[in-house]
Write the structure tokens for this entry.
Amino acid sequence: MKKKLLSLLLTALLTMAVLGGCGSDGTGESSGDNSSKGPTGDPVYGGSVVVGIQQDIDSLDPHKATAAGTKEILFNIFEGLVKPDKNGDLMKAIASDYTVSEDGLVYTFTLREGVKFHNGSVVTAEDVKYSLERASGLLDGTPLISSLKVLTSVDVIDEKTVQVTVGSANTELIYSFVAAIIPAGSGEDESGTPIGTGPFSFVSYTPQEGIVVKKNADYWQKGLPYLDEVNFKIVTSTDTALLELQGGSIDIYPYLTDSQANELKDSFQILSASSAVVQALYLNNADPLLSDVRVRQAICYALDKDEVNDFLAGGNATLISAAMLPTLQTYYVDLNDTYGTGANIEKAKELMTEAGYPDGFDLEITVPSNYEYHMQTAEVVVEQLKKAGINAVINPVEWNTWLEDCYNGRKYQSTISGLTSDTTPGYMMNRFQTDSKKNFINFASAEYDEVYNKAAAAMDPEEKAGYYKQLQQILCDEAGSAFIQVPAITIAVNPKLGGYTFYPVYVQDMSTVYYVK
């Protein structure tokens, strides 16, 4: 039955104020939609742009890429059977249609006619089978995309039809089929010369410098892209980015601070929207000091999130107390009253005394130094914690070091960073399961694990929403981390460019960007 099982749940998932819903006209007033922004005028085909990015690529292999900053670029090179659109809905991409069995265990995809890889070959059912088996672990027993490990078989029905069987029904699984489709057998080659079906094809990558892509003339979406070439250039700091923007060597930079936006507003388009990033002072729950819930709670009470918002975001961020995006309105629960958005130093000291630290303690905060926003947040937080007797020091590290030591190795005490989400409620919440490979804060709660499993299995939208709210409550009460805010994303765009489009996920879609006649 065509998409019957998913229709109600998908409606519930998407009946929300999806992220990226507001743009700015440069005056600070919301335009009220997330459509393309820029000057009026006819689009011109051709030309190139330079987009400033903050970090190096962690992998060109789309199934192995971890960093959000990598995925925002690879969005232009790779596509899945489905892909997100600017409203947060799923659009059919390599698949022209799909159906789901009533029990939710069988997905049948029909491939779009004539979709070509960047090497000129037409996408076949065998390519889809290989890609999904590789990503799910069916190929060699090692899942590369954790949400797809529920796949039990991928079968080619005919040259244009692929049937996917899963071990358990999950109404959010359809979103995982954004996983990149690559040529059969090409897995090990993707990290060197990636081949996808996206609007741009790979040209070159230089470590510590950036990645260049060019127009895919055979792209299946007629009329796209407009640009001939895009250079994603690594910029080591926002100060450097500001100078390059002013000097004309960068056309687009999506990570402005509030003060920089004000400095550039007369010479650039300044666009703004809610981000898909959950920023927090993430706490390693396995650390001897932070394994005590009272210590973690004390840190939460000592933070003044209002001050962080006002100082760094111009008051435009959304304050949070758990890892759920407020724009997922059906599933979000406001828990800011638990610790308050201002500092409660008295309560923080009371908990520290109970935990055996009446004179305070030392805390190291590791921060990826290429993210100026996180560095500035850390500087504010350090001063706030001092008021409660917590002697916090910042340990700035290179991005690759942060990724290796903090995220993958879990060798840190605390860190200020951001985790990106998509438009499904389980995307963020599943990372805090005890045995999740993405649970870099080492949060461990049998109750949380039990409730998450119920949430994943729930078919009724209201029941599912209730479980997700319970998960947020557990994470907040246990002070898994000191959640701070969902920052606004503020972007500088060359005034000669139009078509920049906000998405509810963390991507830079260059296919819609064009020069204006």
